[in-house]
Amino acid sequence: MSFSSSKASVVNQRYELQKISDVEFRIDPSARPGMNVPVTIYANDSLITKMQTDRTIGQAVNVSFLPGVKKHVLVLPDGHEGYGFPIGGVAATDFEKGVISPGGVGYDINCGVRLIRTNLMEKDVRPRVKELVKEMFRAVPSGLGSFGALNLSTSELDRVLSEGVKWAVASGYGVSKDLEFCEENGNMKHSDSSKVSGEAKKRGAKSLGTLGSGNHFVEVETINQILDPEAAKAFGIENRGQVCVLLHTGSRGLGHQVCSDYLRIVEANSGNFKISLPDRELACAPAGSREAENYRLAMGSALNYAWTNRQVITQNIRRAFERVFHMSASDLQMDLVYDVAHNICKVEEHEIDFGNPKKKAKVFVHRKGATRAFPKGNEAVTMAYRNVGQPVLIPGSMGTASWVLLGQAKSMEASFGSTAHGAGRMMSRGAAIRTYPYEQIRHELESRGIVLEAASKKGAVEEAPGAYKDVDMIAEVSDKVGIATKVVRLTPMAVVKG
Amino acid sequence: MKTGEKGYRFLEHTTDAEIEAYGSSLEEAFENGGRALEDTMVDLNTIQPRIEETIRVEGKDMQELLYEWLEYLIFKQDTEQMLYSKFKCRISRGENTFTLEATVSGEKYDPSRHEEKTAVKAPTYHDMIINENRSQRRVTLRFLLDL
Q1: Is the pLDDT of residue B3 over 70?
Q2: What pLDDT does A150 receive?
Q3: Do the Cβ atoms of A145 and B116 come within 8 Å?
C-alpha cells in the first residue's frame, strides 16, 4: 500500500456536483483519476452547502478509490468530515475482489442507539424528573469516571465477546425478549475473541456498563409527534406524551483498541497488498486475506461487546426507574423497541448495478455513521416487525429532538439498505465553548423543560444543541429520498451526559 | 524559539480535537504532545506528579511513534485511570525502528480534584504532520484525537 503525501489530502478540492433532484447530488468517476465509482450525496441545498465547507465530499471521493468498491459511495444527509471515511457514509466492496477497511467502521465499533419504551406518560414523569435523572446518572457511570462498573474475569469477558447480549440475559442483565429487538439479536456469530488483543481486553474488562463521553448520552424522551401511526403502533408507541428512553453509546476502549490494532496490522502488511490509496486512514486488506479475516472476527467480538454494553446499561436504567416509581420494570412495560448499530461492516446481498434490481451480489457493507434501514419483508428484520419494516433510530444532539424512521424498499436500491445516523456536528468544539457558557446552556435547556446531568461541564458545552445540524432536516431528507420515512418525533425531558 | 508558554495549542476542528505541539527538539515536541493530550482530558494544572513510571514504545516511522505514544497514554487512562503532567522523553533511531523511552509522572483520576473535560477514544493519522526544521531547531507536531 502506498499513500500520497498528506499535503495532497489536506486540500479542500471542489468537485463538480450534478444535481439529480432536490435531495440528491452526484459526482461522476471522471471527476478525479482513480475513482472507481460515482459518489452519491443525499442532501438538500442547505446541507450540501455545509458539506462543501469542509472535506466531507473529498473524503467520499477518496473512498471511491478502494479496490472492488461497488455501484457508488454514499454520503447521507448528516454527512460530515471524518478521518479517512466521511462520517455519515456507506461503501460496499466486493465479497471476493474487494477490501475491508477498519477505518470504514471507525474507532467506536458498533457505536449505536437503542430505544426503550415505557407505559408512563409525561405527566407521570415530569414531577419526578430531577430525581429520575440523578438516579440514572448514578446507575450509569459516565465520562472519565466510566470505570469499573462491572469487573469482568477473563473468561467472562470472552463470553461477552462471543455471546453478546445472550451473556447479559443469562447473567441477569435483561430478559430474553430483549434479544429479539437487537440487530443480529445482539450476537454477531462471526466473531472470535482470540483475535482481540490483550490490550483491548484490558480496556474492555472495566468498561462494560459505562457510557463514556463525547456525544454519548441517555435521554428520557416524550413522544412529540406521531406521523405513521401504524408503524408506531407496531413499535409499541401509541400516544403523544408517552415516555421513552434513548441510549447512545458503543464498544468503549475495547472497540477503539481493536480498530487501532488492526489499522496497525493492515498497514504493517501493506507491502504485500499493493494497494495505492490517497489517505493513510483508508488502510485496508483484501477480502479473504488473513488480515481481513482476523479483523472481521475481532470486529465481531467488539460488536458483541457494544450490544452487551447497551444491554447492561438498559438494565441499570430499568432499575433506576423502579427505584423512582416504585413499580417493576415489567409493570412499567420497559420493553426494548430496537437496538441498531451505526458503525459496522457486514456481509449483505445488494443490488450492484444502477437500474438493475435483479443483479445482486454479496458485498461488505461499511456503514460509518450510518444506520441499517431494511424494509418490510426482509428476513434480517426481526419477526415482530417483518410486516412493517425495521425501526431506524436517529438521535439528535443533546437537548434536541430525535426521530424513529422506518426502513423502506427504496433503501435497497438507493443506499445499500442504509440511512443517516444523527444530526452531525457543524460547529467546532472550541467555537461551542466560546459561544455557549455552561450555565446558559443549562438554563436554556431548563426553560424548555429539560433537566441536564453531566459528568463534564466542558463536555456538555461542546455538545451544545446549536453546535449541530438540524436533526429535523436530516429526517426530512431521508423521508423525501424515501430510504427511511418518518414515524415518530421525540423530544427530551432529561439528559444524562458523559 | 517562541512557542508560547504551553508548547501546544488546540486548533479549530468540527468534531474532534486537533492539536499542534512544538519543541526545540523532537523529544520536547513529543513531551508537549503528551501534555496536550492530558489537557484534553482534564485541566493539566490539577495533575500532581505523585507517581513516576517509565514507558517504552516503538514505531516503524516517526508518525507511528507519535501514534503509539499517544495511544499508550490513552491506554493508561482507560485501564488504570492514570493521568500525567510531567514528561521526559528520549527518542532513538534504529535501522527500521524508532524507539521512545519516557519517564512520566502523574496520579490517578480523582473527580473531586480533576475537572473533567472529555475522554479520548484514540489518536488518528488524520492530517498528522511531523515537521522538523533542524536549522531553526524547531519541531512541530500536528495530530487529531478522536473524541
Answers
A1: no
A2: 86
A3: yes
| Chain B residue closest in CA terms to A251 | B121
Residue by residue, what is the 3-state secondary structure of chain B?
CCCCCCCEEEECCCCCEEEEEEECCHHHHHHHHHHHHHHHHECHHHCCCCEEEEEEEEECCHHHHHHHHHHHHHHHHHHHCEEEEEEEEEEEECCCCEEEEEEEEEEECCCCCCCECCCCCEECCCCCEEEEECCCCEEEEEEEEEC
Q: CA of B130: which chain A residue's CA is closest?
A: A6
pLDDT score for A8: 38
Dist. CA A342–CA A108, nearest whole Å: 10
Q: A334 in a domain, yes or no?
A: yes
Chain B nearest C-alpha distance from A183 (Å): 24
Q: Is residue A471 assigned to a domain? A: yes
**Same domain flag for A447 and A406:** yes
Res A12: pLDDT:
54
Q: Residue A259 is nearest to which of B74, B78, B122, comparing CB atoms? A: B122
Contact A144 B15 (CB under 8 A): no
Per-residue model confidence as pLDDT tens digits over A152-199? 999 999 999 999 999 999 999 999 999 999 999 999 999 999 999 999
Helix H or strand E encompassing A271: helix A270-273
How many structural domains does chain A have? Answer: 2
Burial of A172 (0-12, 13-18, 19+ CB in 10 A): exposed
What is the per-residue pLDDT across A424-442, written as a single tens digit (0 to 9) for each? 777 777 788 878 888 888 8
**A318 at the B interface (CB within 8 A)?**
no
Query: Based on the number of CB atoms within 10 Å of its own CB, is A258 exposed (0-12), middle (13-18) or buried (19 or more)?
Result: buried
Is residue A430 one of the residues assigned to a domain? yes
At A245-296, the pLDDT tens digits run 999 999 999 999 999 999 999 988 888 888 888 888 899 999 999 999 999 9
Are the CB atoms for B60 and B111 separated by under 8 Å?
A: no
Is A421 noted as a catalytic residue in this protein?
Answer: yes
Contact present, A470 and A406 (Cβ < 8 Å): no
The ipTM (two decimal places) reads 0.88
Q: Do A83 and B124 touch (CB under 8 A)?
A: yes
Q: Are residues A134 and A64 in the same domain?
A: no
**Average predicted confidence (pLDDT) for chain A:** 93
Grid cell for residue A277: 490509496
* Residue A491 and residue A440 share a domain: yes
B 82-121 near A (Cβ less than 8 A): 109, 111, 114-119, 121
**Interface A-B: count of C-beta contacts within 8 A:** 119
pLDDT, tens digit (0-9, with 9 covering 90-100), for A295-336: 999 999 999 999 999 999 999 999 999 999 999 999 999 999
Question: Look-up: residue for cell 455552561?
Answer: A438
**CB contacts, 8 Å: A263 with chain B:** 125
Enclosing domain of residue A26 = 2-107+346-372
Answer yes or no: do A392 and A483 share one domain.
yes
B117–A281 C-beta distance less than 8 A: no
Are A6 and A75 part of one and the same domain? yes
Name all domains of chain B by residue range, CATH numbers in brackets.
Answer: 21-28+44-146 (3.55.10.10)
| Residue B12: predicted pLDDT | 79
Using pLDDT thresholds of 50, 70 and 90, give the confidence band for residue A2.
very low
State whether residue A137 is helix, strand or coil.
helix
From B16, B115, B121, residue closest to A256, measured CB to CB = B121
**Distance (Å, whole) CA A272 – CA A497:** 44
Question: Cβ-count burial of A472 within 10 angstroms (0-12 exposed, 13-18 middle, 19+ buried)?
Answer: middle
Percent of chain A whose predicted confidence (pLDDT) is above 70: 97
